[in-house]
Amino acid sequence: MIDSSTGAQKLPEESPHVRSGNRLSDEEREIARGGVTPLTLDPDRLFPGEPATREIARDLYASVSELPIISPHSHVDPSLLLDNAPFSDPADLLIVHDHYVTRLLHAGGVDLDALGAGKSAPTDPRRVWQTLAENWHLFAGTATGYWLSHQLASLFAIDVEPSTVTADRLYDAISSQLDTAGFLPRALFDRFQIDVLATTDDPMDDLSAHAALAADPSFRGRIIPTFRPDAYLDPADPTFVEGAHRLAAWAGEAAGDYAGYLRALEGRRRYFIEHGAVSADHGVVEPFTIELDDAAASALYQRALAGKLTAEESRVFRGHMLFQMARMSVADGLVMTVHPGVHRNHSTATYERFGADTGHDIPIATGYTRNLHPLLEKYGLERDFHLVLFSVDETAYSREIAPLAGFYPSVYIGAPWWFLDAPDSILRFRAAVTETAGFYRGSGFIDDTRAFLSIPARHDMARRLDAAFLARLVREGRLSPARAETIIVDLVDVLPRKVFKL
């Protein structure tokens, strides 16, 4: 912890990091003027301001605050838990690999190269941390700032905000804790009370890390892979041809045989299921689907391998393969999750310098009703088929996704994702979908994160917001307190287990 009056390090027990109210004292205001601002976690954060409603929210939150975390969609590397090595430094842990953080710093004028992001060369971690501290104001009011504050206060007992004045001492305070046994990845996994953690994996991954974790009696967690075949289904992807040949070689199929290509994909899905997978995830530009006959699909596949498809032909082949993924999910039981509507690598210059997943993926408007009609005509009434629809287009929630989930037994509403997994967006989501589809057509919360330490902050945020939303309905006489308490437990625990077949 840091003494908020001097910036000096002190023991955690000397200073609380959770505030009982939300008013600054005269002393705290004076400290803030000097560049040292208290960092506190209000126990009523994200709850309604109206006292009676806030009290209901407190009680609802208390009923789920200690429940285990179910994370059926994340991007945590399983080797983190397999190797169980100490985290190297605060910058690598909290900044360098988190595009939520680096993109806002970049927007504020910081070159990604100065942060060591993506393909850039490693840089001085203390300087990276200093850059965050100097620009801490950029995160005010953002979900990223909320999660970072939660991590600093709850995990590291930090009670002052990062700033030019406090940067070095905060860096040292965090670093000293990273060297302790309590901050090894497995210890944090237990501390976070994670019951299930799904990773996101290439279809040709041998899943050796998953197998080793499953066979390790000293590790009691459940880490499961997720089949993510985008690059193997999209002829426009620069690795598509290489991927098709790798699939064929693994399956012993002729590289140019479309039927063999399908058999190879089915075989890899079986391999994933054998290693514990429960879902297949599809990050498509649009959820366009179409069913082609075998001859037409084979002809497009041949042209794709030869690099001769037009843009429209590539779109048709992608749409057909998304349809095929639904067919396979009906057959093998993998939950089908669809994450559409993102223009990947929007900045060509940034992509060329730093690579993918460096903060410049931008949402686009997305349509579901017409695009998914062929798929739902064929498989929408299959009750063992689970199709989870995510969106970064808020307009689609009430217009298309909730109505689809409110009719088709196979369709579930994915939790707010990426740019929408933020406090006000989540409340808008609840209002947009509940009146049409209720609470029981949703996926439960997903954190969708590479930042391992942010997982409890994100899930705690979702639980608080669900408590806030339900409290309002109770206060307005639209739900009984008993029903609201049942619902919030189901949102946190029952629904994700049901939807993802856990």
Task: Tell me what the structure shows.
The structure is a single chain. This protein is mainly alpha-helical. The chain has a domain of 125 residues: uronate isomerase, domain 2, chain A (Orthogonal Bundle). Helix content is 48%, strand content 6%. The strands form three sheets. It has a four-stranded parallel beta sheet, with helices on one face. Helix 10 links the parallel strand 2 and strand 3. The radius of gyration is 24 Å and the shape is globular. The two termini are 39 Å apart.
* Largest sheet properties: 4 strands, parallel
CATH fold annotation of the domain at 12-38 and 86-183:
uronate isomerase, domain 2, chain A
C-alpha Rg (nearest Å): 24 Å
N-to-C terminal Cα separation, in Å? 39 Å
Structure, briefly:
This protein has 502 residues and is mainly α.
Blueprint (SSEs and pairs):
Layout: H1 26-33, H2 51-62, E1 69-71, H3 78-83, H4 90-96, H5 99-107, H6 125-134, H7 143-156, H8 167-178, H9 185-191, E2 194-198, H10 208-215, E3 222-224, H11 230-233, H12 240-251, H13 258-274, E4 279-282, H14 294-305, H15 311-332, E5 335-338, E6 342-343, H16 348-354, E7 362-363, H17 373-379, E8 387-389, H18 395-405, E9 411-413, H19 423-437, H20 455-475, H21 481-499
Parallel strand pairs: 1-2, 2-3, 4-5, 5-8, 8-9
Antiparallel strand pairs: 6-7
List keywords for this structure.
502 residues; uronate isomerase, domain 2, chain A; four-stranded parallel β-sheet; globular
